[in-house]
UniProtKB/TrEMBL annotation:
PANTHER family: LEUCINE-RICH REPEAT AND IQ DOMAIN-CONTAINING PROTEIN 1-RELATED, LEUCINE-RICH REPEAT-CONTAINING PROTEIN 9
Protein keywords: Leucine-rich repeat, Membrane, Repeat, Signal, Transmembrane, Transmembrane helix
Cited Pfam families: FIVAR, LRR_4, SpaA
Signal sequence annotation: 1-28
SpaA-like prealbumin fold domain ranges (all copies): 508-584
Lineage: superkingdom: Bacteria
Higher taxonomy: Bacteria, Bacillati, Bacillota, Clostridia, Eubacteriales
Descriptive protein name: LPXTG-motif cell wall anchor domain-containing protein
Transmembrane segments: 884-905
Length: 910
């Protein structure tokens, strides 16, 4: 428990004392021992001294906070919140300030919030039936059993951090949870139950023993924070789809692969510290919302790369302001700024940015300026799905035009809050433009812009809505994430009062039209009362107008107008509702005050004209096709056709010809699906491997190659290893790229094979090598780069050390001790004179083998006798050599000559 400065605590406690006046909410303030250490009556329902004081102080049981017995009725009163946390400052007091038991709270049946942190509560059974509870905060208590909470299904906030919990299964039914804190329990390892909490916006599981994050996979509403620091986590791939997340803590785990983080583009705070195996910044380079101070990298392999990372992020922010496939001339300045920033990057950082995003934008702008169509770059499709970088989107602008596209000036609009309060009047300028800039006071609010001059104009839209996030910044427009590129427009039509039908309050009148505004006659409608019983009917005339005169028996009643001929027609607009007042007159229409100027319409579609059975069937067949089983290109053709097919399916006035045509197109697209080659499980489909050999198939080591791609012309250098093998594993972020492998050592070698060309794709959201040299990649291929020395007169250096040593060994042998046959064998081997490395190695082995095969002569009696005679002679001549014949001497001399010739030839070839 935290030790706080006594002065500050006393001051805070005094402030709390001043604010104690909130009725029926238990608040704690500076404690008086005489008020707390009292004798509790045996029949008092709250026996814990501290809790007793908390409750009776809250409900003002006595004016001077002296003791008075608490009853069931006291707790059954309107007591929305019980709050006490002064025990966090227990060191300021010389008496017990802890709540140890909550027995008696079972009678607080109307309580919605219990906040009792920093106490000594271990048993939660007394609150097991308080089903109105929406919030429990009991962090820093000794709670171990969560079973009493199993029925509290309305809980939205639960904080039980720093307790003694090991099993969280009893929480399984708490499906309304939005915030859950279970940190510092240390021994929680099974979090399977968390998968039930699909509404969670914040989850803290730090300081536990968790290794498997699979249960978090479906928690796509997590936005405010996910705290997983200090656990036993290795794999974070289950977090791939939690894309709304703004804060993530995975520090102090065993994580090495963070590639999944590239999906979490809303992250602002990210803690990766103390994961030493993290060594790649690539997955972080497009997280453009990251706060530099909120990124923790201490204790990782990239802790010294933060500055480089944010240099790349800043360039990506500029590139994210436009989309090359949807570029307009208005984006030209953004593209120029991005190009300048990219060019200023250090070469080693450019590899993290797909330059094609800039190149494609530049090329498309050039096309537009020439009056040509934009080119669609399929390689950039993944970036088309990203939202435009907002920057500081503070100004909302919209146009006011008539139906001919002419600007309308002087048109008035109101800026209203979501509560209907008008904050400001906006007026279109001489160009028909309205601009509104938000300022610091706009914090976390919903706004709407509505037409004021409704008596002068009719509008194509009812309103424009937008939302701010308190930065201040506009984050949402018309219910969708703001991009800053919205084309907002009010199209108005002047109301001609002379032509407008005169409708008094005693008559209901509306038009009946199809979606193309064509009038439909003869459509019957029912008028139902508030009990949904038909009280009358009306039918549209030859002009599609339906009229009904209100009668005296309809006063003080609500009514609904709906189609009677539902077998023949389908409504495409909401029902018309109206209210009749004290007189037989309409006072409200569609929940708004009746003016008589309403332009009411019932848009309907005629049923049963076109047979769409086959179309429905073929759409179901198309939707059943697994995207992962077919090539991206062929499946895209199917999905494009499917989008149009669904449009025709829902089109009320579609012709049979249109239905039949699109049905046929879908069938053809299905027939043209091309199955994707499946990479066998366990195969590395991210790594390209090839051999480097000469024309004699000898492996060559130390040869340099360069690998470049269509995004980054600064090539990666790779070198063949001691076995002549080159391996290159493609980084996970390089999806949808084209690569080229070419020889870098052009001054030493020339290549007798073409360069290796390969492309990458995406399967199940993971990178893989899709094609090599135009053919599907299986990882079983044997690719060879065949090289020859650049200068034909110069051969690669040959190592002859072992051969020279073997020759010296042969020369040292005594020819008198070996048979003529074995020496002839050695001579035959040594006469070989080719000087390639392979042949030198082979001759060396053969010479050594020949030496091993030399056979020593047997010493005969004749030789022995001759040796004896030599001993008896006076030694006045050179001694004989053991009876070796003249022919043998010649042979041995030839052997030495041959060896010498090999040495000379070898040196010459060198």
């Amino acid at each position: 428990m935290g030790k706080k400065n006594k002065f500050i605590t006393a001051l805070l406690s005094f402030i709390m004392l001043l604010s104690i006046g909130a009725p029926n909410e238990v608040k704690a303030y500076v404690l008086n021992r005489n008020e707390i250490e009292v004798e509790i009556a045996p029949d008092d329902i709250i026996q814990d001294q501290m809790l007793n004081w908390v409750i009776r102080t809250s409900i003002h049981k006595t004016p001077d906070r002296s003791y008075a017995k608490l009853t069931k009725e006291d707790l059954e009163k309107d007591l929305p919140e019980i709050y006490y946390s002064e025990s966090d400052h227990y060191d300021l007091y010389e008496f017990n300030v802890f709540v140890k038991s909550i027995e008696g709270l079972q009678y607080a049946t109307n309580t919605e919030r219990i906040l009792l942190p920093y106490n000594k509560i271990s048993d939660l059974k007394p609150i097991s039936n308080l089903t109105k509870l929406t919030k429990i905060v009991m962090n820093d208590n000794p709670v171990s059993d969560l079973t009493p909470l199993s029925n509290l299904v309305n809980l939205e906030i639960l904080n039980l951090g720093d307790n003694k919990i090991t099993n969280i299964e009893p929480l399984a039914n708490l499906t309304k949870l939005e915030r859950l804190n279970l940190e510092l329990n240390f021994n929680i390892n099974d979090i399977d139950v968390v998968k039930n909490f699909t509404k969670l916006k914040y989850l803290n599981l730090g300081y536990n023993s968790i290794s498997d994050l699979t249960p978090l996979k479906e928690l796509t509403y997590l936005e405010d924070g996910l705290i997983l620091g200090n656990n036993k986590i290795q794999d974070i791939s289950p977090l791939a789809d939690i894309t709304k997340l703004k804060e993530l803590d995975i520090s102090s785990n065993n994580i090495s692969d963070i590639s999944v983080l590239k999906n979490l583009r809303n992250l602002k705070f990210l803690r990766l510290s103390n994961n030493s195996a993290i060594n790649d910044i690539a997955p972080l380079t497009n997280l453009t919302k990251l706060d530099k101070n909120g990124l923790w990298l201490t204790g990782t392999g990239i802790e010294d790369k933060k500055d480089d990372l944010f240099k790349v992020i800043n360039v990506n922010k500029l590139i994210n302001k436009f989309k090359a496939n949807y570029i307009t001339l208005e984006d030209k300045e953004y593209v120029e700024v991005a190009r300048e920033a990219y060019n200023a990057l250090a070469p080693e950082l450019k590899k993290y940015i797909p330059e094609l995003r800039i190149i494609a934008a530049e090329e498309n702008i050039a096309r537009i300026e020439k009056g040509e169509q934009r080119k669609q770059y399929s390689e950039l499709s993944e970036f088309d799905k990203q939202p435009i970088e907002l920057g500081d989107f503070k100004t909302l602008q919209f146009k006011i035009e008539d139906k001919n596209g002419q600007p309308l000036s002087g048109v008035k609009f109101n800026l209203q809050t979501s509560y209907g309060y008008t904050e400001k009047e906006l007026i279109s300028d001489e160009n028909g433009i309205v601009s509104h800039t938000i300022f610091d006071a706009y914090r976390y609010m919903d706004y709407q812009i509505v037409l004021v001059d409704k008596d002068k104009y009719t509008s194509n839209i009812e309103k424009i809505t937008f939302k701010t996030d308190g930065t201040p910044k506009i984050v949402e427009v018309n219910g969708k994430p703001a991009t800053g590129t919205e084309k907002l427009k009010f199209v108005l039509e002047v109301i001609d009062q002379d032509e407008k039908p005169s409708v008094d309050s005693s008559t209901l009148q509306f038009k009946v039209v199809d979606k193309n505004e064509n009038p439909i006659s003869g459509v019957k409608f029912n008028i139902n009362d508030q009990n949904d019983e038909a009280v009358s009917s009306l039918t549209s005339d030859e002009n599609g107008i339906a009229r009904y005169k209100i009668t005296s028996n309809m006063t003080y009643m609500d009514f609904t107008v709906d189609i009677a001929d539902k077998n023949k027609y389908t409504a495409e607009t909401e029902k018309i509702t109206f209210k009749v007042g004290a007189k037989p007159e309409i006072v409200k229409i569609n929940r708004k005050a009746f003016t008589g100027k309403e332009d009411l319409k019932f848009v309907i579609a005629v049923n049963g004209k076109v047979d769409k059975t086959s179309l429905e069937k073929v759409i179901k067949e198309a939707e059943s096709k697994d995207v992962n089983k077919y090539t991206e290109e062929s499946y895209k053709q199917l999905t494009d056709a499917l989008v149009y097919a669904k449009t025709i399916l829902t089109k009320t006035d579609a012709t049979q010809e249109e239905v039949d045509t699109i049905t046929k197109n879908i069938q053809e697209a299905i027939a043209k699906l091309v199955e994707e080659i499946t990479i066998p499980e366990g195969v590395d489909d991210k790594t390209l491997k090839f051999r480097v050999v000469n024309k004699n198939a000898q492996l060559l080591s130390g040869v340099k190659f360069k690998i470049s791609n269509n995004y980054n012309k600064n090539a990666v250098e790779v070198i063949s290893d001691e076995n002549g093998i080159v391996k290159y594993t493609v980084p996970d972020w390089m999806i949808y790229m084209n690569f080229k492998v070419e020889l870098a050592d052009n001054d030493k070698y020339t290549s007798e094979t073409n360069n290796i060309i390969f492309t990458t794709g995406s399967k199940n959201n993971a990178l893989y090598i899709k094609e090599v040299n135009g053919k599907p990649f299986t990882s079983k291929e044997n690719f060879d780069f065949i090289l020859k020395v650049a200068d034909e007169d110069i051969k690669p250096e040959v190592d002859k050390t072992k051969l020279e040593n073997a020759i010296k060994d042969a020369e040292s042998r005594d020819a008198n001790r070996y048979t003529e046959e074995s020496q002839k064998y050695a001579k035959t081997i040594l006469e070989k004179s080719d000087a390639t490395q392979e042949e030198v190695d082979k001759n060396t082995a053969e010479v050594v083998n020949a030496i091993d095969k030399l056979v020593e002569k047997s010493i005969t009696s004749e030789v022995a006798q001759e040796k004896q005679n030599v001993n008896n002679e006076e030694i006045n001549t050179l001694p004989k050599t053991g009876g070796v014949s003249t022919g043998m001497s010649v042979l041995f001399g030839s052997l030495l000559s041959t060896i010498g010739a090999i040495i000379v030839l070898s040196k010459k070839t060198n």
